């Protein structure tokens, strides 16, 4: 199934899920020249979004979202600055071991990434989730990838393995499936589209992960949603759930 058809199919199921919960159908429209944030550089390019934007219900809603997004942007340094700082630190201490992405808590900063902000919006649109449920997914992915800066696990837990790859740090058979799916769809595994598309593909085509989504859609708050998605979809060896919940709340604006 092509990337575009995959998203359309997922969106149809998302609408059904919202209707079953009594949330009603969302009105959407395609918008030209929406910003597509580059995954690793933080630079932006204009293109037609594959995921349609919601119609704004009121000026107050638009003002709130604009203010929220501006606050997120103001709280962040550019990814280029963060990468440069990391490189300078590495040069001053060449013996320092790189941290395992899933285990480190050396960086207590709470910053939302542009990639994560976009991902939350599109998860709501395509999967028909409530905002805190989408935020729980993004908070988990942010934790797994060090703020969406590292798609490849720096120091694999399983010695001799390739380690995790992508938003979910897919490992073993799931990593191979991700690489194969991306190749079939002519997508770079480091790209936003490859990561977002494979996640939707996995949820759509594996009954186990489909059930995890249904369980997630029934959660009542951000902490519960974060735990459900982490335990069901990611299954980390050392969850560090408190850190995951902090990241999730960040994308919910709390």
Describe this structure in words.
With 254 residues, the chain is mainly α. The chain has one domain: Orthogonal Bundle (Lysozyme). The chain is built from ten helices and four strands. The strands form two sheets. The protein has a two-stranded antiparallel sheet. It has a two-stranded antiparallel ribbon with strand order 2-3.
Tell me the layout of helices and strands:
Layout: H1 3-20, E1 28-29, E2 34-37, E3 44-47, E4 53-54, H2 59-74, H3 79-92, H4 114-127, H5 131-144, H6 172-184, H7 192-205, H8 207-217, H9 222-234, H10 241-252
Antiparallel strand pairs: 1-4, 2-3
Strand element count = 4
What is the CATH level 1 assignment? Mainly Alpha
Largest beta-sheet details? 2 strands, antiparallel
Structural class by secondary-structure content: mainly alpha
How are the strands of the largest sheet arranged?
Answer: 1-4
SSE string:
HEEEEHHHHHHHHH
What general form does the structure show? globular
Radius of gyration from CA coordinates: 18 Å
How many distinct domains?
Answer: 1
User: Which spans of ≥5 residues are poorly predicted at pLDDT below 50?
Assistant: 29-58, 93-108
Mean pLDDT, all residues: 77
Name the helicity range. 40-55%
Say what the CATH topology is: Lysozyme
- Helix segment count? 10
Distance, first to last CA: 37 Å
Q: Based on the structure given, which CATH architecture is correct?
A: Orthogonal Bundle
